[in-house]
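At this stage, I wrote out one protein's amino acid sequence and its backbone structure tokens, and that material follows here:
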Amino acid sequence: MTPASSPSSPGASSWSGNPQSLLPGTHRRLDHLLAAEQVASRLPSVVAGLVRDGALVWSGGAGTTGLDGGAGGAGRPGPDTQYRTGSITKTFVAAAVLRAVEDELVGLEDPVRAHLPELAGGVGRVTVGQLLGQAGGVQAETDGPWWERTSGGDWDSLVPLLGESAVRHRPGTRFHYSNVGFGVLGELVGRVRQGTWRDVVRTQFLEPLGMDRTTMRPVSPAARGLAVHPWADVVLPEPEHDAGAMAPAGQIWSTVLDLARWAGVVAGRSQVLRRSTVEEMWRPQSVDDARGAGWAAGYGLGLQLWNVAGRRYAGHSGSMPGFVAMLRVDVETGDGVVALTNSTTGFGDLAHRLLQTLAEAEPHTPQAWVPRDVPADVLALVGPWYWGPAPLSLRAVRVGAQDGLELAGLAGRGRGSRFVRAEGVPGAWRGLDEYYGGELLRPVLAADGSVSHLDLASFRLTRTPYDPGADVPGGVDERGWTAAP
């Protein structure tokens, strides 16, 4: 086939399903970026797409796909061309586990052996949540042949490898990426649903989302997995197989069009998973800061997380011999990117650069401010408060569809949190995040029915610094505020 970097290789082309959604200049910038990456990284082919407001607003491809998985011919990649997604598969398995959690079939604190009793020790003592969060300490790869390049055995052949020696680190203490752990999770979700993980993923996600080009093995048109020689413009076909019990770690094939729909799920904008479940998936379970430089990458519940200059992204990368893939969403805006190539060595930060180009060229228009109804009991709480002498502010906000409160320190000081009404505790509010996450804020009323003070996890917040009328624990010096201590 024609080497990917030769002058005769075709450049990038767009196939956006909604060409009016982005400006022509933005399309040209994105097309150029993709074409330049195909040449610079010597990719046989590369495809990508950008998602905004749940719709695919740009997609494009460059290069040639090599031998088609079904037809045996070479051709240009398109939005319906399949590529192997590698570890993006893990996001589907994780979503299936969390649907089982929603249905109360599984608990995140359950030890794996509660659902797979044949794993009495070793991996069996690790919790479901630890496996999902890559914090179980389970070995990264299987013992024996390189599983990514050899046909996999069944579950019974994997079980003997999951004893105590498979737990490399004390569970819950550090980030340690484990493909083996997701092999276990795939078996677990199939077991609790009395089927296979493949069936669960298909019926719960692929069919409802219309992802009919997402399959477990390649279906034409599909790109051929290739390795590109490091020092010459020649390629080598890579093997493709069923990974067996390890398939939940990296089996799925998909397309730009289908993965754009899945990006909407990862962004929390789909009905197939509750929004609250997706927000839990975004929450870091382990972070990769082994060198002590502060975390830039971590892992939530089945999702990779990236912290780029304080901005949070979620999704997953994927790689298998012959393929590299990326799905990433900005959790604040919901913008998403998908990128796929049929090269073992893949691309660099292409996906992030595409997403950044979109954000810079066509930033989101802020939603207009409009007045809204605020309940009287909320209005009674807003305004300045004091934690001892430290000034705080309490504002009325919306948290999703709920009335909420946001506590913040003034002048950069003081602990903050968001609060929503506490279920089952009349008049109280429960913290959602930061220091007061899970803690109760209780308004305490005076004899006349007005709010005297706030009890926040035993701290007393008052309308004036150390208000003596608010029964401050430890009392308030009877001399009051004075220049002479």
In short: The two ends are 86 Å apart (CA to CA). The longest strand covers residues 311-320. Residues 1-9, 68-73 have pLDDT under 50 and may be disordered. The longest helix spans residues 24-40.
